[in-house]
Amino acid sequence: MKAMGTDPRILSLAAEVAISPEQNVPVILLKLKEIINNTPFGSSELKKVKQDIYCYDLIRYCLLVLSQDCSRIQGGWTTISQLTQILSHCCVGLEPGEDAEEFYNELLPSAAENFLVLGRQLQTCFINAAKGEEKDALLHFFEIVTDSLFWLLGGHVQLIQNVLRSDHFLHLLQTDNVQVGSTVMTMLQNILQISSPVIRSTATRLLLLMAESHQEILILLRLSACYKGLRSLLNKQEPGTEFSQELRHLIGLLSPKVYQEVEEQKLHQAACLIQAYWKGFQTRKRLKKLPSAVITLQRSFRSKRTKMLLKLSRQKEEEDRRLQLQLQRQRAMRLSRELRLSMLEIVHPGQVEKHNREIEEKSALIIQKHWRGYRERKNFCQQRPSLVEYKAAVTLQRAALKFLAKCRKKKKLFAPWQGLRELTDACRVELKQQVDDYIRRHPGSEVSGVINRELHSQAQERLQHYFMGRALEERAQQHREALTARINTNIEQLMKAPSLKEAEGKEPELFLSRSRPVAAKAKQAHLNTLKHIQAPWWKKLGEEARDEIDIPKDELSIELGTLFIGGTKPP
């Protein structure tokens, strides 16, 4: 129920929150800080303002905003840190009235838990931050959140037990960062300074929990000089009914016997850790080999499955084919019987036997035809390898004969005269018979043996002269071809030769002729051209440039000393 005489500022703020979109609510709630700061501290007016804030559920709005993701809140950690201050100040000194049970059992524990969650988030962001300025800002926001939590615990001592038992608070204590750890330990020291039996029991349980969960803390409590009188101090405490069992347990952990057990337990844990690392290494090693083994297994399984499916499909196809053949046979038998019955109805009774004989003969012919075809196909399959061998032999023989024919042809080309072939006896007899027949038909004058020998020697000489002349002609032909090729090359070089102005280096030497007559003729033409150019104009009248000019041999010899003629040597 809402109180009477509500502050108009709270009323307008609640209305604005109700009609504003969700992303603008955190910024609107920050106006509560100005309202609280403008109200005198400890006055009845401040209590009235806090009751109005609670009545209009603005505290719950603050809790809802703090439970959201910080990246979605406008202003980020700045807005969140200010909302934690507003929430802690509103909850301390508030008299909820009729809703006291809900306020103390639900709202306050939820607020403390949200503060711890925000602290853990800030701790994570601070550790992951890279820049120094960002770290300083996050540490400042973390200190604001811890101060707000301490302010809330100072006003509501019963929340200390919940905070000290929280897992989030334990994680805050276990941080490796010095700055965050010092801030948390300062808050813990401030909390423990509050005088309350509940706090003493909670602190004892917390210390016992830390000693049991982390053996390093127990060893530190026993060996460190800072905690040297802790066991004697605990013995002086009067054990209450609430936490006497926890106190005795903590004193027992700090005894030397328990320390020895802790050392043994530490060695046992170290051995377990080494075994765990070794087993992990072996497991990772096996896992690295596992993909190849799995791939091989999958490949073999898939191939086997493919083969099985292929076998099943083939069996199914064969079964379907067999059923189709059976159906075709049944259909053919049925059709033949129907045809036979229809023919029997048409045929005259006296012609039935004749008709049956014709059908039997046709059937016998069909059976014989199929049997002969089967037998020939079987023989062909049996003779097929021999046929393949025969074809291969024929192909090889053909290739060999072609190769030998080419070899003989090449021999004939490179060796045109190989002498006369040797005659067999049968060829000699046949040739002798032909000669006798020719002599008998064409009788000639009688010639003595001396004349025959002379004619034979003359024929041999002419034949020898022919072969010698043939060799000389071949060499002359080769020489002519070489000269022709040389002339063609020289002509091609002359066609591609540069002018005298463009010639450089040894390029003119490439066009020197090895023939003395050619060089002399070229030199003669060159000198004629020079004489014609150097002669006065009146001597050129009536002359042609192509007319030859007689040059004395002395001048020729003089010029020959300055110009090289190919094919000659200097004296």
Structural overview:
One of its GO terms (molecular function) is calmodulin binding. The protein is mostly helical. 76% of the residues lie in helices and 0% in strands. The protein has helices spanning 8-19, 25-29, 31-37, 44-55, 58-66, 77-91, 100-128, 132-155, 159-165, 167-173, 178-192, 197-213, 215-223, 230-236, 244-253, 256-346, 352-414, 425-441, 449-496, 516-534, 553-562. Helix 7 (100-128) runs antiparallel to helix 8 (132-155) and helix 9 (159-165) runs parallel beside helix 12 (197-213). The chain is elongated, with a radius of gyration of 64 Å. It starts with 7 loop residues before the first helix and ends in a 9-residue tail after the last helix. The model is unreliable at 225-229, 545-549 and 551-571 (pLDDT under 50).
Shape: elongated
Structural class: mainly alpha
Largest sheet: none
- Calculate the terminal CA-CA distance, rounded to whole Å: 144 Å
Topology as a string of helices (H) and strands (E):
HHHHHHHHHHHHHHHHHHHHH
Task: Kindly provide the radius of gyration, computed on alpha-carbon positions and rounded to a whole number of angstroms.
Answer: 64 Å
Q: Approximately how much beta-strand content do the residues carry?
A: under 5%
Percent helix: over 70%
The parts where pLDDT drops under 50 for at least 5 residues are 225-229, 545-549, 551-571
Mean pLDDT: 77
* Count of alpha/pi helices: 21
Number of strands: 0
